[in-house]
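task queued by scheduler; priority normal; single chain, no ligands, no partner chains; default sampling; output format set to structure tokens
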Amino acid sequence: MPFRDVRADFPILTREAREGGRLTYLDSAATSHQPADVLRAQEEFVRLHYGAVGRGAHLLAEEATEAFEAARSAVAGFVGAGEGEIVWTGNATAAINLVASGMGAASQGIGGSESRGFALGAGDEIVVTESEHHANIIPWQVLARRTGAALRWIPVDDVGHLVLDGLDSIVNERTKVMAFQHASNVTGLIHPVGRLVDRARAVGALTVLDACQSVPHLPVDFAALGVDFAGFSGHKMLGPTGIGALYGRRGLLDALPPSVYGGSTIKTVTMTETTWLGAPARFEAGSQPVVQAIGLAAAARYLSALGMTQVAAHDERLANRLRTGVSSIEGVRLLGPIGGGSDPVLGLAAFTVEGVHPHDVGQVLDDAGIAVRVGHHCAQPLHARLGAQSSTRASAQVYTSDDDIDRLLEALSGVRRYFAPKGAS
């Protein structure tokens, strides 16, 4: 059955582009738009139920608390998490930092005996991949420096595939944590989570999954994937900014020490000692992002109603159209494989145009009403490995149509001619 045309569900897509005409939005891997259902859910909560969560016995406080925890349950169900296994964060970056900072605290003796398993020191190793977003590299660089552990990485080949021939030597008995992305925000490649998790388990290492790009496009079940922790962001899955989540296996979350301190996280406080609540409360200090959580839950319900299997099939079809089209344009280099078969990819394409800076490519496309991303996409090591300082990236979402892809390809085909010297053929 054809995927339902949902463009009308997104109010912002009714506005005109810079020079008038239809807006073609192909920057969803950076920030996706919110459907009317998500906007209404937030507005209704603010108008009728707004109050402090967990801090009052009056009607509005009770309603706000109930809505807040119902949102947590909805998002947990969307990603295969159990009760107490979803912690609200500001975004996926904050989720990954929460784990790395907690391990750093444990390494300093904070959290007592129950947190000892998270401690790192000299001789221990942290493993990432060369494909990672900076948010899944920098926290581990800092943790390595704080603890004396060594940082290692799984390399990628000329196309962006993880080179797993040496996996058993890179992930070894010294490895304490392995952090990796589910899918690349540059090449679009969907990585073999199962193989990586199996190797980490074989040596007793914890796994941390960056699921920012996968959760909006694929059916994701963290428990079934077997990862220990995972982070994702609301603004990439049709929700608001300022909200994301950390998934963690319940026993691990209850043992990981918090690294942000304040109200709502504690059992008792004296002038010299503090004891913590269990997860997720121990990680959610201060006033909560209540409105954003309501919006993220509404986004999860919207995607669930579409059906994530159907969403994934739509994304796969657009990926084929987009990546095949980009790779066929003379003078344009697609980063990563075309996809298909043994190369599963998401519906995004990062590319370079011979002789034209990515920012200039983006400007020409913007003049044609097409919104794309330009830069290194917070993945400088991967760009360097692929031989590109930066790139232009187009990315699809549920509201993206064949016509959107075709408009991009047509405009992209004319970019080199636009910058060609006058009189050149």
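post-processing summary
- The mean pLDDT is 95.
- The chain is about 35% helix and 15% strand.
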